TrEMBL record:
This is Protein phosphatase 2 phosphatase activator. It comes from Ovis aries.
Amino acid sequence: MAEGERQTPSDSSEDAPPTTQNFIIPKKEIHTVPDMGKWKRSQAYADYIGFILTLNEGVKGKKLSFEYKVSEEAENLVATVVPTHLAAAVPEVAVYLKESVGNSTRIDYGTGHEAAFAAFLCCLCKIGVLRVDDQIAIVFKVFNRYLEVMRKLQKTYRMEPAGSQGVWGLDDFQFLPFIWGSSQLIDHPYLEPRHFVDEKAVNENHKDYMFLECILFITEMKTGPFAEHSNQLWNISAVPSWSKVNQGLIRMYKAECLEKFPVIQHFKFGSLLPIHPVTSSC
């Protein structure tokens, strides 16, 4: 992301919603291509991308084995899913979780489903179940476990990639772990972007870095020269620094996922991620 594009992540995810908030079942609002303007101006877009960038900063330069503290609320989440006093939010938040594991009819999965899981985590932050100081745990513990589950499903059911761009896309299924994974590697003492196409480097370091874990999974699932089946990633390996890779991937995520009608037409909006225009107070 160029300096001029850099955004300050919204602080709204730190505060629980007022107890009088009326939660609603999220629904689709983007029905035609012109509706994309509503999405780009929406509070939902501002909160979602702010959440993604906050986590991006949180994991910068850290391994997956990094020692982090998890707030009491996050522990409660693991034990009880959502505390009793937030029960009214469950139907709204649950919609995003249900949308995050792929389509049961088409048996497909893609970045739109991945975005639904990120939206689920964002909503948990907005109701106060997770906090911003849980950001490392959100990526390393919760999202990374989600990746493990989805990879198992992809292998078991041979899920079709939803909306894949084939060789010209970044990856058939995921995008966010490449963003957060490249942030992890910023200022690494010896691993450079050129090393992720080196089988030895990937095998020795994949357990510490999400980006390399993604590369390992791709090489397990695809055959043939890496430059042919993953041309976009091959080109990225020529970028001189991880910070430039990270900035470029954020731009690419906005352009290829968040600004594409085929992806966003399935996104759902409620009281926590509303379609109304972003307010200046947030």
